[in-house]
Amino acid sequence: MPFKLPIFRKKVLEVLASSDETKVMHISDTPESVYRFLDGIIGKTRPDYIIHTGDLADNVKLERRPELVPLYKGALRKLARVLKGSGAVLYIVPGNEDDPELLREFFGDSVVEPGTVIEIEGSRFALGHTWREVAEKEADFRLYGHNFKLIERGLNGVLGVNFVLLPSGKTYRVKYPGGTDFDRGYKMWRGM
After folding, report:
1. How many domains is the chain built from?
2. CATH assignment at residue 133
3. pLDDT per residue over 69-98, tens digit each?
4. Residues in domain Calcineurin-like phosphoesterase (predicted)?
């Protein structure tokens, strides 16, 4: 089955694919059901950096169900193939549903602590799983996930796949496929 996208999403991806700027891709709280979608977006946009801000297998609630480690490892194996196969520089922040030791097993030195600030082409990125881990950091961009909260200079990876183009600093968001929140275990968006 070919990789198909809605018209608006397709237009944003065309803009990103045609850009000569450095591309930073940010994702968070990814259930296994979106791995194929992410692989398609990576193939179309060819990001230079990929930052995942935690809960890499968000359909496996490891924090509450530690007996699911075998399922979690299987999911990490699949996502590692997608992300490492991209050729992008990776940064992985452990989330509350992640096992940091297993993340290091699959992603090695790409795993960084929540609250880490990195610099890419003169722009500072604060990386955390929750907004609290980045809200007070001095950074041009604050990347996080975990819930639907929005903060100043923040990009929430739960709401969509975020892209930052450098050096311009332009940001774009590509929505996840329908059903992603259900696959994460969210029943509904409150107030939407």
Report:
1. 1
2. 3.60.21.10
3. 999 999 999 999 999 999 999 999 999 999
4. 23-109
Per-residue pLDDT tens digits for 12-30? 888 899 999 999 999 999 9
| Residue 48, CA distances (Å) to 87, 118, 146 in order | 8, 15, 24
Buried b / exposed e along 12-37 (16+ C-beta atoms within 10 A):
bbeebeebebbbbbbbbbbbbbbbeb
Q: State the residue range of the domain holding 46.
A: 7-184
How far, in whole angstroms, is CA 121 from its chain's centroid? 20
| Tokens standing for residue 57 | 């297998």
Give dist(CA 61, CA 82) in Å, integer: 21
Other CB atoms within 10 A of residue 70 CB: 9
Name the pairing type of β-strands 22-27 and 123-127.
unpaired
Q: Give the pair of three-digit tokens for residue 138.
A: 């001095």
What CA–CA distance (Å, rounded) separates 48 from 75?
A: 23
Residue 2 lies in a domain: no
Alpha-carbon distance 38 to 29, whole Å?
A: 12
Assess if residue 79 is contained within a domain: yes
This prediction's pTM:
0.91
- Assign 171 to helix, strand or coil: strand
Q: Is residue 91 part of a domain?
A: yes
